[in-house]
Design a protein that fits this description.
Structural class: mainly alpha
Helix content: over 70%
Shape: globular
Strand content: under 5%
Number of domains: 2
Largest sheet: none
Number of strands: 0
Distance between the termini: 10 Å
Order of helices and strands: HHHHHHH
Number of helices: 7
Length: 190
């Protein structure tokens, strides 16, 4: 596993630069995006992702490369339903076609900022207080039981998630308990 202090800041700076270039250079003026322009833009972003995948394969090996490609393809598939929802929202609020790109762009950036504002402190809290992770696991398992409507399926999930949470949090190591970030670092996730 490659450990460099500059990898995350470099990656985030690169993403910020791409977003800035996209909004303030490529789409500095509001206009209706043609099918051709949309295809070229998507092709450009897919090419960047494949270039990144090639880098992951080269620097981190075939396992990490396959993991990245799998995650990328799953995210692409999961994002298809967002297109339908976005079309409904734009139609409902009567967003003019020439403003749709900018509205969508700022919506995505806003979603990223809001998620980070919850994820970063949440990881710190769960890392510091293991009982929070177990409580969240119990809550999720109870919710799954309610969704399944099946006492057996719900009970299996309800019993498995807390046990798995405890096993993940109480990893035997010389220093005692390991929090999620320590486990993630040791297993090469981070």
């Amino acid at each position: 596993m490659i450990h460099h202090e500059w990898l995350w800041p470099g990656f985030l700076a690169f993403v910020a630069a791409i977003l800035f270039f996209d909004l303030f250079v490529l789409h500095r003026k509001d206009h209706v995006i043609s099918k051709r322009e949309a295809l070229v833009t998507v092709g450009g972003y897919v090419s960047l992702a494949m270039l990144f995948a090639a880098g992951v394969f080269y620097f981190a090996g075939p396992t990490r490369g396959a993991e990245f490609l799998t995650g990328y393809l799953v995210e692409q598939a999961l994002s298809l339903d967002n297109i339908f929802v976005i079309a409904l929202i734009f139609t409902y609020f009567r967003v003019p076609p020439e403003a749709q790109y900018r509205v969508l762009f700022y919506g995505i950036v806003g979603a990223i900022v809001m998620r980070l504002s919850l994820i970063v402190p949440g990881v710190k809290i769960v890392d510091q207080f293991a009982v929070v992770g177990m409580a969240l696991g119990g809550w999720v398992s109870g919710y799954i039981r309610d969704l399944t409507g099946s006492y057996t399926a719900g009970m299996l999930v309800m019993m498995a998630l807390p046990v798995l949470s405890v096993l993940a949090l109480i990893k035997a190591r010389p220093g005692g308990m390991a929090g999620p970030s320590t486990i993630a670092a040791e297993t090469g996730v981070v």
